[in-house]
Write a structure and sequence with these properties.
- The protein has one domain.
- It is rod-shaped, with a radius of gyration of 55 Å.
- With 172 residues, it is an all-alpha fold.
- Strands 1-2 form a two-stranded antiparallel sheet.
- A hairpin with a 5-residue loop joins strand 1 and strand 2.
- The protein has four helices and two strands.
- Helix 2 packs across helix 3.
- 76% of the residues lie in helices and 2% in strands.
């Protein structure tokens, strides 16, 4: 009868007929010891693989958590980017509104300065000539002086530099 070992290799008859208590065994030993050693080795390898798989699963869970954090960070960045864009648009609108209001105020201030100069010059003229204040004549004089000052201002002469002597020809 032929005995086979672990790898279905034939075992010599001298080894197959030895008894379990026999100490004079061949160098490759009992096939069961080889089987147990191979099973131990397979179990250790399986345990190592299991640890590797567990480590891999743990890393995958950490990766998922990091991806979720990254997604949240991107969403927050997008939200802040949108808020920033809205703030920039509203600031530009406020700037435009402020600029238009400032230009209106500046134009109104310039007109008030011109009118103040007109009334001041007319008051000096009436005081010097000692004329009685007639509303119709005053309105006509005021319009002529205003036109003259506006004309001079377009030429680059500031209203403060226009004196009563420059207007004498208009008021006679």
């Amino acid at each position: 009868m032929q005995h086979t070992g672990i790898d279905d290799a034939p075992v010599p008859a001298s080894l197959a007929s030895s008894t379990p208590g026999d100490t004079a065994m061949a160098p490759d030993g009992n096939p069961w010891q080889d089987t147990i050693a191979a099973a131990d080795q397979a179990l250790e390898e399986a345990a190592r693989i299991q640890r590797g798989v567990q480590q891999n699963l743990k890393l995958m869970q950490e990766l998922r958590a990091l991806r979720e954090e990254l997604r949240k960070a991107h969403a927050e960045t997008d939200r802040y980017r949108g808020m920033h864009a809205r703030v920039v648009v509203s600031m530009r609108q406020l700037e435009e509104d402020n600029t238009s209001a400032m230009s209106q105020l500046h134009a109104g201030n310039e007109m008030l300065r011109v009118r103040h100069r007109v009334y001041r010059l007319l008051a000096e003229h009436y005081a010097r000539v000692a004329l009685r204040l007639d509303p119709e004549r005053f309105a006509g004089d005021r319009d002529r002086v205003l036109q003259h000052i506006l004309f001079q201002r377009r030429k680059g002469v500031p209203p403060e530099d226009i004196g009563l002597s420059d207007l004498a020809f208009l008021l006679l």
